[in-house]
Amino acid sequence: MRYIMKALLRLLGWRLVGQLPKDKKYVVIFAPHTSNWDFVLMLMVRFCFKMKIGYLGKHTLFKPPFGWFFRMFGGIPVERSSANNVVDQVAAIIKEREEIQFALAPEGTRSYKPYWKSGFYHIALKAEVPILMTFLNSKTKEIGIGDLLRPSGNQEQDLDVIRAFYKDKAGIRPELTSDIRFEEKR
């Protein structure tokens, strides 16, 4: 599957860049997320790098008869009711596993948002794991693995590092790129 995905990316004109860190556990963020094609392209990157990606899914998806399918592809059941803290649930799962790359798109949507969702950051802090920045850049037709950030707990300082990494990356629909900042709490 790895060679097929690499060939497909090349055929589509994309150049695969970067390499996975040696760490066995980290939170993977993908940006900019501006199109439905982002998911397809990043799924291809997952296969190219043989990543063991975990992702969140509503807990009811993991019941028979199809629960096995979602688990096989890295699904992690989560109870999303207001009584449960998803950040704590995911951090606990990451801590208990020997190896996991937990993935999400911090923009949370393909539409423009004035801020990123902060869950990825809080999960990484609580699980005491780094954040791997993955990307696509439609200007250069590059896609792949970028820098690893070990969150310090100083959000603004860490967001400055993230902004610097993504500043020259353009999504497939650049006009929908969200601002790299967290929502201000009232």
TrEMBL record:
InterPro entries in alphabetical order: Plipid/glycerol_acylTrfase
Listed pathway(s): Lipid metabolism
Gene Ontology molecular function, alphabetical: 1-acylglycerol-3-phosphate O-acyltransferase activity
Pfam families: Acyltransferase
GO biological-process terms attached to the record: phosphatidic acid biosynthetic process
Annotated protein name in UniProt: Phospholipid/glycerol acyltransferase
The Phospholipid/glycerol acyltransferase domain, residue ranges: 27-136
Domain of life per record: Bacteria
UniProt keywords, alphabetically: Acyltransferase, Transferase
Parts of the chain that traverse the membrane: none
